[in-house]
Each structure stands twice: as structure tokens, then as C-alpha cells.
Amino acid sequence: MPGEETIAFWLLPAAGARETLAALIAQLAERCDAPTFEPHVTLAGGELGPPRANQILQTISAREPIELEIERIDFSEQYTKTLFLQFRSVPEIESLAAEIRRLCGGEDEFNPHSSLLYKEMPAAEKAELARTIKVPFQQVRFDAVKTIQTPHPIHAREQVEAWRTLGWRQLKSSGG
Predict the structure, then answer these.
(1) Which candidate, 127, 112, 119, places its Cα nearest to that of 28?
(2) If I label 110, which of 4, 43, 87, 103 is the partner at 20 to 30 A Cα–Cα?
């Protein structure tokens, strides 16, 4: 149903990768007349209010930053996965996503990816972008979790532009 909202839990890339991926998203958005958004991996989501989302954010167990290897740049028919980095999953991210899904009461499948573009476009154009886009690293370090309130489902720029940050939490640093 249009007009519904959900809370999403995002894993955010650390400094360096965050700026590089944000610049790539901005370049693609300008080139393709698409919305810009913050680079992230969606861990889980659910229909819960901001107070519950904040409580979950504060109660997730302390963890070290998570390193993910980029498997490939891919594309799909899904608006929010028009063009994306597919990551190789690791137990650390699976565990974090499962913990948040359990706390949210959600049962969504988890697929560690980071979208680069949200745009309805022909498959041939997406394939060409996937083939020509270059990311200057193979590993991405993620070091924070953020909660976002968003319309659901997302099918248009206006819905992306309506996202609102609710909370943010740094993962513990090595040795800390």
C-alpha cells in the first residue's frame, strides 16, 4: 500500500570508501538523472516506530568493523537494486543482520549489496554501466549502523528523497 513507512537498518562504509562510493553514486545520479543517496548495505527493516528502532540500535551487541569483499558489479529489475556492488558474505555481517532481523521481528532474506543507482532503465543500459564502472578497491570496511525512516515500497525519486535519519551508532574500533 502506498503511504506506508518502514525503518531500515543500514551498515555504513568507513571513511575513505564512504567518500569514494558517495562520489560514484553522485556521478551516476547526475549522468542518469537519478536520486543521490548515502552508500550503505541494508541489514534489515521492519514496520516499527522510531522509539523501538532507536532501542534496537542501542541494544545490538558490540562488534568490530566488518570487512566485505566486492564480488562484482551487477544490476537487476528492482528499482533499489538498479546497479549495485555485490559483496561476498561473511559470518560477521550475517550475524549482525540476523540479530537485527530478530529484534525487528522481520524475516527478510539478507543479501549483502550496496546500491550505486536507483533508476528505471533498459537492461542493456544497466549492463553497460555494470561493465564500465570501476571501483578503486576490492574490500570495503564498514564501521557504523544507521537507522532510516523510509516510505515503503520505494519506486521513485521522491520516496528516496523522503528518507529521514533516526539514529546512528559507531561499531567499536579494533582494540577498543
Answers:
(1) 119
(2) 4
Residue 156, in any domain of the structure: yes
Amino acid at the residue 21: L
Residue 102 lies inside a defined structural domain of this protein: yes
144 three-class SS: strand
- The torsion defined by the Cα of 176, 100, 113 and 11, in degrees rounded to 10, comes to -40
Encode pLDDT of 98-148 as tens digits: 999 999 887 667 899 999 999 999 999 999 999 999 999 999 999 999 999
Please indicate, yes or no, if residue 176 is contained in any of the structural domains.
no
- For position 91, which CATH number holds? 3.90.1140.10
Please indicate, yes or no, if residue 175 is contained in any of the structural domains. no
The grid coordinates listed for 37 are 543517496
Residue 71 has pLDDT above 90, yes or no: yes
Neighbour-count burial of 104, counting CB atoms closer than 10 A to its CB (0-12 exposed, 13-18 middle, 19+ buried): buried
The range of the structural domain enclosing residue 116 comes to 4-170
Domain count, the chain: 1
Q: Count Cβ atoms below 10 Å from residue 173 Cβ, excluding itself.
A: 10
Contact criterion met (CB below 8 Å) for 65 and 141: yes
Question: In sequence order, which residues have a C-beta less than 8 Å from that of residue 26 and are 6 or more positions away?
Answer: 36
Q: What are the cell numbers at 134?
A: 570501476
